[in-house]
Amino acid sequence: MSCICKFFVLFFISQNSLTDLINKLQVAKPHFVRCIKPNTSKEAFKFVPDYVLAQLRYTGISETVKIRKFGYALRVTYHEFLVRRVQS
């Protein structure tokens, strides 16, 4: 396969991946988006688990996941907070 063909194949793969991500974000309505880098050398298809885990810990994502597993919401509106406060 020539270099030009590889470029177009990678382009279409990344384009489809980006389109898929945008569609998921539009449906999910996230509060924030974090970019996690898979490696420090910017190599394709190279995943360094310890590097990714360190980023997740540093950004607080792993703590957020733990809190969500316990059933707590990420953000409570002021009205919801007042209602819960009055009921307790």
TrEMBL record:
It comes from Dreissena polymorpha (Zebra mussel). Belongs to the TRAFAC class myosin-kinesin ATPase superfamily. Myosin family. GO terms for biological process: regulation of actin filament length. One of its GO terms (molecular function) is protein serine/threonine kinase activity. The keyword Cell wall biogenesis/degradation does not apply. GO terms for cellular component: cell projection; myosin complex. Residues 1-19 form the signal peptide. This is Myosin motor domain-containing protein.
